[in-house]
Amino acid sequence: MADTVYNFGAGPAMLPPPVMEKIQQEWLNFQGMGVSLIEISHRSKEFVAVLEEAQRLFRELTGLPENYRILFVHGGARMQFSALPLNFADCGSAKKCLYVDSGNFAKLAATEAQIFSSTEIIASSAEDNYSYIPTVTPDMVDQRGSYLHITSNNTIYGTRWNDFPETGNVPLIADMTSELLSRQIDYSKFGVVYAGLQKNLGPSGMAMVIVREDLLGHHVEQTPTLLNYTQCDKDNSLTNTTNTFAIYVIKLVLEWLKEQGGIVAIEQRNEAKAALLYQAIDQGDFYRGIANVADRSIMNVSFRLPSEELEASFLQQAEKNGLYALKGHRNAGGVRASIYNPMPLSGVEKLVNFMEEFKVNI
Ligand SMILES: Cc1ncc(COP(=O)(O)O)c(C=O)c1O
């Protein structure tokens, strides 16, 4: 067994070690109460203070404009695939939800929306196994549309939007599950941003939704209460017994992020980690990146080796060397290194050294 194990899993993913240690310290006795945080009421003043501090820190770190609300909702990111058309399909005169199909989750989001609303995929990179981000020009966005949905970072293929599309009066909605808080974002360009927590934020099973205030109140009548963002906002995310532990972890992660120097500093670190890894991939023909170079993600780096046999051997040996969960998603194959905010540079350095050794020794 290697000394340090670096976890490159795509999600649930590694959390910052200081956050895990803080959870351990406070586990049996939260703030001197003599009970654990997970044993106290979601309506207690102590828990509400945690939730509101998480919202405050998110605003502080991201510079989120005042007219955006922060919600904590159930069911991870995919539950929001249903909630989006229910909450926003009525926002446009054509009652038609527009989607860009840039990957597996983007496609799933559009397919789910079809259950509740008329939808249209206006651009897709499916024909090239999602190796690039499709181009969206303003004339492609029907101004009668309810919203345009994009997946800002495609976790499986390792592509991301560098420049977000201009949508005119149509609200832009982004699934940022695999990159929220990893780079500076101008939130005022978006109507809604949402993310499953399990990558850069905390444990799995919940999501954060950032929504522009004027988009609330448009839900269809049959919207289930727990998918209704307007209700959720009214109740400050406490309509029912929420996942108190997950929200507590988000607060700790945000505190950690602040200690790291905030989003500007973490983005610089993320850029440096990704550059090191892409440099190792681009050196020679042995490793081959999956994503189009101009659309490369700095969170998920997917690449292939010359054969599936070599990939299997690479993964097996990597794991023996303390490089955990590098197997690519079944839709893309090969290797995927997820290098979210908590991954230290030393983890990427270790991976890059291993890649070099593996190449030389076969
Ligand atoms: C971009 C993106 N969207 C949605 C999902 C689905 O998230 P969840 O499992 O929380 O529903 C994932 C999961 O990895 C993802 O990467």
Compose a concise summary of this entry.
The protein has 362 residues and is α/β, with parallel strands linked by helices. Helices cover 35% and strands 17% of the residues. The strands form four sheets. A seven-stranded mixed β-sheet has the order 2-10-9-8-5-3-4. Strands 11-12-14 form a three-stranded antiparallel β-sheet.
Question: Which helices and strands appear, and what pairs or packs with what?
Answer:
Blueprint (H helix, E strand, L loop, with lengths): L5 E2 L9 H10 L18 H18 L5 E7 L1 H13 L7 E6 L2 H13 L1 E7 L22 E5 L1 E2 L4 E2 L11 E4 L16 E5 L9 E7 L16 H6 L9 H16 L2 H21 L5 E2 L10 E5 L3 H13 L2 E2 L10 E4 L6 H17 L1
Parallel strand pairs: 1-13, 3-4, 3-5, 5-8, 8-9
Antiparallel strand pairs: 2-10, 6-7, 9-10, 11-12, 12-14
Helix pairs in contact: 1-6, 2-6, 3-4, 7-9
Bound molecules: pyridoxal-5'-phosphate.
The site of pyridoxal-5'-phosphate has 12 residues, from α3.
